[in-house]
Amino acid sequence: MFLVIWFLAITAAAAAAAAGAAAFPQHHHTTKFPVHELYKMTTDFWDAFMYPNNCLQAKSINSTLLAEDVQGRIDITRTFVGQELNTEYLFGLFCNAVGSEFSIVGIPTSYTVEEFVGSGNLVSVTVTVSMNYPALAWISPVQITTFITFDQRGRISQYDAVFKWLDWQFATLLQKAQALAGNSSVVELVENLLIQEICSVASQYCIGDLQQYSSTSDCSTFLSSIRLGEVWELGMNTLTCRVVHRNMVPYRPDVHCAHIGKSGGGYCTDDRLYDKYVSQPFFTMSSLIRNSSHHG
Length: 296
Hints:
Elements: H1 2-23, H2 35-49, H3 53-59, E1 66-74, E2 79-81, H4 83-95, E3 107-119, E4 122-133, E5 138-150, E6 156-164, H5 166-181, H6 186-205, H7 216-224, H8 239-246, H9 253-260, H10 274-279
Parallel strand pairs: 1-6
Antiparallel strand pairs: 1-2, 3-4, 4-5, 5-6
């Protein structure tokens, strides 16, 4: 009897192992890069992300570091598809933070690789970026963890980025801004400064058929009626979302003016639910595809 039970147990374990192996995601053919090449391709991107290199990338319109059909997702904002759009958000956003009287978007000046692992065409990397906030005389560390896949030409084809502890960083930013507010409400001060920045860009670039507000007063009144936003709401109907998109308006007003307008243009809108957003598949290429589920 013992041998029978033992045999059945071994058979069941083998079947479970086989089922698990069969359920493991099967990837399409991808180029296998040596680890040192993966590291260089990764640091090439982060080098380009630093100011003023990011401005050169932004002006190129389509960064050669990115594949034409690149897919990107950032936890605190939204998803981005295509070379041009990703060039604007990855490089233009932080380039145009320079020159703002006040911005919640820092200027990246240097970085340190904290963690790195690479295999085939897939990289997982954590970097700490030094972000400069001139108006606050503050240089803040911001840690970003990213999964990246590269295409056969060594260009980024997919990325999934998470900003770690950014809610804590934003709370610290507000504390730093208290010095500018004096005895007034720091949140009210920040809101007013951001509204000025958004309305200034809207009046300069969003004109004619692209006009979003009838006047600067209309712009200010509307933006005063919406919330500042939590860190995770940079892709919602918030001031902070419009500040992010404000930096992209000069590149393509026809695309981005709507994002800082009253409608939010499909980017700064309250159209997402947590459960659906987290569970909804996005990536379509190998390595980052979520095509299996497991139950304990």
